[in-house]
Amino acid sequence: MKTLKDIKNILIIGSGTLGLRIALASALNGYKVIVYDIKEEAFEPAKKIQASLIKMLIKAGTITQAESEKALENQTFTTDAKLAAADADLVSESVTEDIELKKKVWSQFGKLCPEKTIFTTNTSSLLPSKFAEETGRPERFCALHFHDVFYANVVDIMPNPKTETWIIDLLKDFGESIQQTVVIMKRESPSYIFNAMLLSLLGAAGALVTFDVASIEDVDRSWMGNFKMPMGPFGIMDEIGLDTAWHVVHVFKDEKSKRFSKLLKTYVDQGKLGRKTGEGFYNYPNPRFTEADFIKG
Ligand SMILES: NC(=O)c1ccc[n+]([C@@H]2O[C@H](COP(=O)([O-])OP(=O)(O)OC[C@H]3O[C@@H](n4cnc5c(N)ncnc54)[C@H](O)[C@@H]3O)[C@@H](O)[C@H]2O)c1
């Protein structure tokens, strides 16, 4: 059994959107970090994004220039899997969301990592038990799911049925040590905590519109007016991207989801994907719901 003081070396597998952020947060909080990726070309863009995150954190007064320099000294990038695994205390895996790839990567690192290593996956949509056996040590394997690390700094711990309880305690301490709010799931359940709630909200909003009960604007107005929120469910979907929303919804085959999926598809087919393309349910950069008269009263 280990405690947080035994965790010094973090191995991040995958230097994409999430991997680079988890790496930076770990390095900024005093851990020695190795970032491994299959592609050397992934490192340059990752370093650039880290540099812009650092700039933002310095500007916000969260860190100093000296702290950021020390963090970058604590971090190395490599495509050498054996070297990356050699002294890892904790692994955080953020490779592309593909079950076969995750199985392959975990059976590779399950063999390469020393006995002391604790394994975590950042998967968004897969249950950890789907590839726990590939790690060769399911009792030391757990989902540790980040959101965006710096702004949405909530992390879900979702054990697989074989995860030992001390791993959960240790991951809670680790998450807090890198400035995350830690939430613990008592058992495996799809979508973690926040996404499960969000999906219900968005599904209900979709049904109100597709069953012709209310308009898009009134659904958003109701949410915003009641909770004093800056946007409603349709504004949120524009932020997420309507293509991503469609990918999530179209796999469900009940009547509500079918109707909602059809609505989303009409936007996706026209290239209206939300804020990122300048148009979705609203037009950007100045969507109607940000105008003062959108909510009266
Ligand atoms: N993007 C998000 O907002 C978000 C949020 C929470 C969790 N996640 C999860 O994090 C994981 C990564 O998502 P992302 O958005 O960072 O993806 P991404 O596409 O930005 O990055 C994936 C990285 O994995 C690397 N990779 C692919 N095969 C590999 C291999 N065999 N070995 C090592 N590296 C390999 C790729 O080169 C790439 O750099 C996924 O499981 C996703 O569900 C993503």
Descriptive notes:
The structure is a single chain. This protein is of the alpha/beta class and 297 residues long. The protein folds into two domains: 4-184, 3-Layer(aba) Sandwich (Rossmann fold), CATH 3.40.50.720; 194-292, N-(1-d-carboxylethyl)-l-norvaline Dehydrogenase, domain 2 (Orthogonal Bundle), CATH 1.10.1040. It is 44% helix and 13% strand. The chain is built from eleven helices and eight strands. An eight-stranded mixed beta sheet has the order 3-2-1-4-5-6-7-8. Strand 7 (154-159), helix 6 (165-177) and strand 8 form a beta-alpha-beta unit. Helix 1 (17-28) crosses helix 2 and helix 10 packs antiparallel against helix 11 (255-269). The longest helix is centred in the N-terminal third of the chain and has 17 residues, at 43-59. It starts with 8 loop residues before the first strand and ends in a 28-residue tail after the last helix. It binds nicotinamide-adenine-dinucleotide.
Looking at CATH, which topology of the largest domain would you report? Answer: Rossmann fold
How are strands sequenced across the largest beta sheet?
3-2-1-4-5-6-7-8
Structural class by secondary-structure content: alpha/beta
Instruction: Give the low-pLDDT segments.
Output: none
The pLDDT mean sits at 96
Number of helical regions: 11
- Bound ligands: nicotinamide-adenine-dinucleotide
What series of H and E elements makes up the topology? Answer: EHEHHEHEHEEEHEHHHHH
Distance between the termini: 58 Å
CATH class of the largest domain: Alpha Beta
> Outline, from the CA principal axes?
globular
In total, the number of domains comes to 2
Q: Estimate what percentage of residues fall within beta strands.
A: 5-15%
The CATH homologous superfamily of the largest domain is named: NAD(P)-binding Rossmann-like Domain
